[in-house]
Design brief:
alpha/beta; five-stranded mixed sheet; 483 residues; seven-stranded mixed sheet; binds nicotinamide-adenine-dinucleotide
């Protein structure tokens, strides 16, 4: 089914236009009704508002905020809140659309949303940020753009669990006895309704996604690479929440070689490998990743994207890989940990060059997947694993004792105790979250890969979009159109 090609107006819309262009490329491989496709593509609700806050010096500043709810084929809608000076309506619409597709790809039953506040968080004190965050949350609540069953924000660029704690507290203060108030936002600190494993979830999901992509011998051979993650050379841009955890886990659990790291102040490169935790400690001590012992300093973050490596992971900002630098990128795989780091024109160049792009719409879905687990925890009012952990522990011990009784020779008492200690544990919350995340990311990659193979080898991004469109279209077909 051909959906109207991107119009000049759509292209000029920028980021949202680019998302819609990707949508169009995928939609033509489906046979859904045109009206349904238009509905999937449209952004349902957008609010833009301005509010005053008092700065610490007594002056008053007017702050602009946004929230876009892209699709209500599932409720609530879900998506992060970013604090950045360049946040605009086009960006929140685009990011909310990506959230709809992302949730569908990983079978998380939410529609997509995204919010933002136009500030550079570094220019405000903690007290000012608290006032901005609380007032932003208050405005969302007044406009019915937040709530466990309505719209559930989460952290994004420039925000973290501190901001989510302020939001949930504000919402709780103004809500009337809402038993599910804690589920109004995810990414909260563990003591305040958060789930263990949420902080690292996006980075860990990036790890599972890359590991899965590298596990197919034929796919890797087509790129001239060996199967597996061990010893692959990786360059990562952005050492924030997503980039730091992805890099750390890729190094520690995947055995990958992190050869380059880029941050705001510049980049460092060492072909023999950098130690992520040491780089972070060095940055804490000196205020910069530069001058890291043994590594070469690179002047700008953008230059680092062109360093020699097997896998390039942009994990900071959108639009960093463009038509201009795409021909110079040396990586065989680009893993989009950030949202929208590759422009659609650059994507065409990379496709021609046979670079495997693992798309954002799949790869950074670990955050929303674990947000879903947090939301479920809040609605059930019980920690995951609380009811079953001891039971599982005892069951494992019973099985070992039964094996002991059934074998001719008794286990040595000490050996039995050691075995029970080793295998006789019940899953705690973190274990369950990680296991659910690993299963989700692995299964979703296989679905996308199967579509890619079935559909004349379209790109992985197009296959991911086809997967999302199919699932959302089925939702609309099942529920019908109101009234
Ligand atoms: P963050 O604020 O924790 O980290 C961003 C990092 O990028 C910071 O360390 C910042 O200094 C660095 N940075 C900024 N400009 C840079 C530049 N030019 N070069 C190199 N580094 C630069 O944000 P985050 O939560 O890690 O989000 C990063 C990206 O991942 C965003 O695109 C976001 O939308 C996406 N994402 C985040 C989550 C999540 O759970 N946090 C989930 C999905 C997608």
């Amino acid at each position: 089914m051909e959906v109207s090609p991107p119009s000049a107006q759509e292209e000029s819309l920028g980021f949202f236009g680019q998302v819609n262009r990707m949508f169009g490329l995928a939609a033509k491989h489906t046979d859904h009704k045109l009206g349904i496709l238009y509905q999937i593509r449209a952004c349902d609700n957008i609010i833009r508002f301005e509010f005053p806050i008092k700065r610490d010096d007594g002056t008053i500043e007017v702050i602009r905020g946004y929230r876009a709810e892209h699709s209500h084929h599932m409720s609530p809608t879900k998506g992060g809140i970013r604090y950045a000076p360049n946040v605009n309506v086009d960006e929140v619409m685009a990011l909310s659309a990506l959230m709809s597709y992302k949730c569908a790809i990983v079978d998380v039953p939410f529609g997509g949303a995204k919010g933002g506040v136009c500030i550079d968080a570094r220019n405000y004190s903690e007290a000012e940020l608290e006032r901005i965050t609380r007032r932003y949350a208050f405005e969302l609540a007044r406009k019915d753009f937040i709530g466990a069953g309505t719209d559930v924000p989460a952290p994004d660029y420039g925000t973290g669990e501190r901001e989510m704690a302020w939001i949930v507290d504000t919402f709780t203060q103004i809500g009337d006895d809402d038993l599910n108030a804690l589920a109004c936002v995810t990414g909260k600190p563990v003591g305040q309704g958060g789930v263990r494993g949420r902080t690292e979830a996006t980075g860990r999901g990036v790890f599972y996604g890359i590991r899965k992509a590298c596990s197919y011998k034929d796919d890797m051979e087509a790129l001239g690479l060996a199967k597996g993650l061990a010893d692959k050379d990786i360059v990562i841009q952005g050492l924030g929440n997503v980039g730091y955890h992805a890099a750390r886990i890729l190094e520690e659990e995947g055995g990958a070689n992190i050869v380059g790291i880029a941050e705001i102040e510049g980049a460092i490169y060492d072909e023999s490998g950098l130690h992520v935790e040491d780089v972070v400690a060095h940055r804490e001590d000196t205020g910069s990743i530069l001058d890291y012992p043994g590594a070469e300093d690179i002047e700008t973050s953008a230059q680092a994207l062109e360093l020699p490596c097997d896998i390039l992971i942009p994990a900071a900002l959108e639009g960093v890989i463009t038509e201009d630098n795409a021909p110079r990128i040396q990586a065989s795989i680009i893993a989009e940990a950030a949202n929208g780091p590759i422009t659609s024109q650059a994507a065409d160049v990379l496709q021609e060059r046979d670079v495997l792009v693992i798309p954002d719409v799949y790869l950074n879905a670990g955050g929303v997947t674990v947000s879903y687990f947090e939301w479920l925890r809040n609605l059930s009012h019980v920690r995951h694993g609380r009811m079953s952990r001891r039971f599982e522990e005892r069951n494992a011990a019973r099985i070992l004792q039964a094996v002991d009784e059934l074998t001719a020779e008794d286990f040595d008492e000490e050996l039995l105790e050691r075995l029970i200690e080793k295998v006789g544990f019940g899953a705690g919350e973190r274990d369950l979250v990680q296991s659910g995340l690993e299963d989700t990311m692995t299964h979703a990659y296989d679905e996308i890969r199967a579509i890619r193979k079935e559909t004349n080898n379209v790109t992985t991004r197009t296959a991911a979009f086809i997967n999302a469109i199919d699932k959302i279209a089925k939702s609309y077909e099942r529920m019908g159109i109101f009234p």
